[in-house]
Amino acid sequence: MAEIRTLREAIAELVRDGDTVAMEGFTHLIPFAAGHEVIRQRRKNLTLVRMTPDVIYDQLIGAGCAKKLIFSWGGNPGVGSLHRLRDAVEHGWPLPLALQEHGHGDLSNAYVAGASKLPFAVLRAYIGSDLPKHNDKIKFIQCPFTGETLAAVPSIEPDVTIIHAQKADRKGNVLLWGILGVQKEAVLAAKKAIVTVEEIVDDLKAWPNACVLPSWTISAVCCVRGGAFPSYAHSYYERDNRFYQAWDVIARDRETFQSWIKSYILDTKDFDEFRRALRESASQGVK
Amino acid sequence: MTAPKYTTNEIMTIAAARLLKNGAVCFVGIGLPSTAANLARLTHAPDIVLIYESGPIGAKPAVLPLSIGDGNLAETADTVVSTPEIFRYWLQGGRVDVGFLGAAQIDRFANINTTVIGDYKKPGTRLPGAGGAPEIASCAGEVVLVLKQTARAFVSKLDFVTSVGHLNGGDARKRLGLPGRGPVAVVTDLCVMEPDAITRELTVARLHPGISKQQIIDATGWNIQFSPTLGETAPPTSLELETLRDLQRRTKIAHGTLTVG
């Protein structure tokens, strides 16, 4: 059963140095508040998994939390490069970052395999691609029935998966809707799961076939209003495109980045205070 | 009557849009492909089905998405499924007619690099990576690529093959058992290229109006061939241009990069 608790407590207890951590959300419902809390609590040596490591992982990588990244597309959507990811890969700053690189079809299948507790996923891909030459986790197998050559990749089974969702009820059952990405699979593939939500309600009023994660599949539910900012929460708030554009400038330079992380994450006590600090700076015309 | 004036970006988008048939099921990459696919939907192909890898099927966005998972894609879609389902049932299941992709670099056989410039271990420039392109390039019925043409983008040898085109040419795709036909066209700001029927090497099929062969030679890193039946792209119509500009204007307002005033 999920315990309803503060995000600080949940991260402190459930995310350990050296863990394999997946934070999912396909441009929607990205668990930014939880990512910030991981930085704030200075977790180290994490293996980070995410199909689309965008700004949230740029922050974690630049802050020195990660030793390895398992991913399939790393960019700032609609803007350009992730400068902190690139700096880590190209120059080993602040730490060298090992890459294990896949395609989306592959990685999404690997989560399905993880949720299914199968050792690997199988798909039709990668013939002729150079990715298998640089990722020894991509192998080719022959179909035992037809002899066709297919790609196989090991399942993803994170120590902890963290997602953001719209609602939970008081028992910790979680409801999410809109673009779902691989959130459900990532939770079910993980040993432990933390879900931040926009609100906790008496009754989810979930319709049949709604995407509900029962309380007993989740370790902790934390109410963090706006916790997906600057991404969006369908039916709650829109994506803050200006933040993504501003991030390009912040992340481009090491010192600007470090000062941003210090002022807005390390020196704030939680996500509410982070949002407040950001609003105050914006009103004073500071980026 | 004078023909409407347009930019090279506009004719690239319009020429790409024209390649999409009404009713086609189209797996759309973000950026230029998404712009062109939505232009097709708003002009000659109202029944085109747009699938985005984040999960929306049959998306009809009012403005262009800035990211692949914008809420407007979900709100206007016929249905929204999970990302694993998109790749398993819909793409690998053979239900996609056209994969519509961009690229950082391509070679003469329309193989695609979106991973790295330079050595993989010591990259000169680290690019975003594969996304869904390797699976789309394998499994879509056919593939259309759209990207600006420069000698840095159209190279004789890729540093990294992320997603396959026609591999080393000829019937290589068929021999290796790739399900889709692979790239059938590459649309640039200068021309439209198509693979040769036998060698599968990209060959210039149509020049955009006012573009010279020399401009294309200068912007290609290999000895580019021109079709013996080289044609010219029809100039954009007023409808195409107005629809594209209107779409882009609405997009800028919606995403807050243009204030109305």
Task: Set out the fold topology.
The complex is a heterodimer of chains A (287) and B (261).
Chain A: E1 3-4, H1 7-14, E2 20-23, H2 32-40, E3 46-50, H3 55-62, E4 66-71, H4 83-91, E5 98-101, H5 104-115, E6 120-123, H6 131-134, E7 139-142, E8 149-154, E9 160-169, E10 174-176, H7 183-189, E11 192-201, E12 211-213, E13 220-223, H8 241-252, H9 254-266, H10 271-283
Parallel strand pairs in A: 1-13, 2-3, 2-9, 3-4, 4-5, 9-11, 11-13
Antiparallel strand pairs in A: 6-8, 7-8, 9-10, 10-12
Helix pairs in contact in A: 1-2, 2-3, 3-4, 5-7, 8-9
Chain B: H1 8-18, E1 25-28, H2 32-42, E2 49-52, E3 56-57, H3 71-76, E4 79-80, H4 83-91, E5 98-101, E6 105-106, E7 112-113, E8 116-118, E9 123-126, H5 133-139, E10 142-146, H6 172-176, E11 183-187, E12 191-195, E13 202-207, H7 213-218, E14 225-232, H8 238-254
Helix pairs in contact in B: 1-2
What does this structure look like?
The complex is a heterodimer of chains A (287) and B (261). With 287 residues, chain A is α/β, with parallel strands linked by helices. Chain A folds into 2 domains: 3-101 and 160-253, Glutaconate Coenzyme A-transferase, CATH 3.40.1080; 104-154, no CATH class. Chain A has helices at residues 7-14, 32-40, 55-62, 83-91, 104-115, 131-134, 183-189, 241-252, 254-266, 271-283; strands spanning 3-4, 20-23, 46-50, 66-71, 98-101, 120-123, 139-142, 149-154, 160-169, 174-176, 192-201, 211-213, 220-223. In chain A, strands 1, 2, 3, 4, 5, 9, 10, 11, 12 and 13 form a 10-stranded mixed sheet that branches. The model of chain A has no long low-confidence stretch (mean pLDDT 96). The two termini of chain B are 32 Å apart. Chain B has helices at 8-18, 32-42, 71-76, 83-91, 133-139, 172-176, 213-218, 238-254, and strands at residues 25-28, 49-52, 56-57, 79-80, 98-101, 105-106, 112-113, 116-118, 123-126, 142-146, 183-187, 191-195, 202-207, 225-232. Chain B contains 8 helices and 14 strands. Chain B is an alpha/beta fold and 261 residues long.
